[in-house]
Predict the 3D structure of the following.
Amino acid sequence: NAGVMQNPRHLVRRRGQEARLRCSPMKGHSHVYWYRQLPEEGLKFMVYLQKENIIDESGMPKERFSAEFPKEGPSILRIQQVVRGDSAAYFCASSPRRDNEQFFGPGTRLTVL
Amino acid sequence: SQKIEQNSEALNIQEGKTATLTCNYTNYSPAYLQWYRQDPGRGPVFLLLIRENEKEKRKERLKVTFDTTLKQSLFHITASQPADSATYLCALDISGTASKLTFGTGTRLQVTL
């Protein structure tokens, strides 16, 4: 029973490029959450999706950031025209129900040069 | 605004002793509170969930209390071991819709021999 999978584990981009982060939830989990963790800071909620629907995106910057969770395939967090301030660890979590513990993936560490 | 406070200073204790970590929150009455463990470079791992109608919950060497009057949760690790060394995060759903977790900044626990 595989856990939450994220790839890539490390991603290096130059300013202005696009970053695409993938998350495959645990089997049977239809709720996916994305969080960002800046160095020496806590986890910050970005977006909550449930198959094909964005439920809550209140933590996601209005520009350059988007997320999707298609009917088939992994959830994608997309950052366009990256800037140095986007450098952080991005974690994905999944859960089988809405008010439940969340299972986190290993994270993607994005470095913007 | 909603605040979740955990001791920002590291907690150093001797092996075999009980570690007690504190989580205080303001301006909200969450339906439940969760505790996670995070090791360096890894994603958080769920430990315990306690609901507002529960005073205490136990799991092996772990115990969590939840005082909704004081707006405080205490997390105890009994008979601590060096392997318990990690950062411990508390998390609440402050949205009221079970759509996202808000995390404290965590307390780093160091258990020494």
Q: What stands out?
A: The CA atoms of residues 48 and 59 of chain B lie 8 Å apart. The interface with chain A takes residues 31-32, 34, 36, 42-46, 49, 89, 93, 95, 97-106 of chain B (CB under 8 Å). The two ends of chain B are 41 Å apart (CA to CA).
